Amino acid sequence: MSDTSVLFVCLGNICRSPTAQGVFEQALADSVLAGQVTVDSAGTAAYHLGKSPDTRATAAARQHGYRLEAFRARQVNVDDFYRFDWILAMDAQNLADLQAMRPEDSQAKLGLFLDQIDQCAVREVPDPYYGGSEGFEQVLDLCEQASQALLRRLEAAL
Ligand code: 4NP
What percentage of the chain has pLDDT greater than the value 70? Predict the structure, then answer.
């Protein structure tokens, strides 16, 4: 059993949330919390179940030293609200969808991933799916900032 657990959620679970998972797992591995935090990711939609992350996301991540290839897309389910202490959404629509399916007795802390960053100029990780490669670079940059902020918060709490 780990001390705490974090689930990252986006729409398809092939671009943003696998990137968040890969970046945050790497930050954890290099920290005093190594081995103490369970991390996973999921999508609110079922479009890409069982698929590997988008090749544009894996390519951008690899250039920054992260490996996403082993991840497989899955959909958020009701059990996740009991299994995870933190459920962090990439955008406001993901968060609204999560709030709508959240069981009343779930203790999970639900929020936007970027709200971990003090005074961040943006609150949502923009969906890069229909755009160019710069969108994937922006996803990585935001995930790195938010991962460091989340890590500091967990280090203080655990
Ligand atoms: P993600 O990106 O939510 O960051 O994984 C998307 C992936 C797939 C689609 C939209 C966004 N789609 O429409 O299939």
Answer: 99
